[in-house]
């Protein structure tokens, strides 16, 4: 997607990295990580992103495994 939008280009690359890591796409991880560094990502930002991805994947799997129902306040 090259059209401008509401999300900053670096944020877009971070989202691509997060999804690529979750999906295990080596090519996508490499290309979007390179693009993110070119757009200003620091090593610390990358590390924080990896922590968020790992935490989200872990808690998502646990919630699915335990079949935790969605709180009424979160439903639309």
Can you give keywords for this protein?
76 residues, mainly alpha, AhpD-like, 3 helices, 0% strand, globular, peroxiredoxin activity, Carboxymuconolactone decarboxylase-like domain-containing protein, CMD-like, AhpD_core
Tell me what the structure shows.
The protein has 76 residues and is mainly α. The chain has one domain (9-68): Up-down Bundle (AhpD-like), CATH 1.20.1290.10. The protein contains three helices and no strands. Helix 1 crosses helix 3. The mean pLDDT is 96. GO terms for molecular function: peroxiredoxin activity. Pfam families: CMD (PF02627). InterPro entries: AhpD-like, AhpD_core, CMD-like. This is Carboxymuconolactone decarboxylase-like domain-containing protein. It comes from Chroococcidiopsis cubana SAG 39.79.
How are the SSEs placed, and which strands pair?
Elements: H1 9-23, H2 26-38, H3 43-65
Helix pairs in contact: 1-2, 1-3
Q: Would you list the SSEs in sequence order as H and E?
A: HHH
Number of helical stretches of at least 4 residues: 3
- Binned strand content: under 5%
Please outline the major beta sheet. Answer: none
CATH fold assignment: AhpD-like
Structural class estimated from helices and strands: mainly alpha
Name of the CATH first level: Mainly Alpha
Mean of residue pLDDT values: 96
Architecture, according to CATH?
Up-down Bundle
Number of domains: 1
Fourth CATH level, the homologous superfamily: AhpD-like
Unreliable parts: none
Number of beta-strand segments: 0
Helicity, in percent? 55-70%
Given the C-alpha coordinates, what overall shape results? globular
Distance between the termini: 28 Å
- Roughly how many Å is the radius of gyration? 15 Å
Domain Carboxymuconolactone decarboxylase-like: 4-67
Pfam family, one: CMD
InterPro entries: AhpD-like, AhpD_core, CMD-like
GO molecular function: peroxiredoxin activity
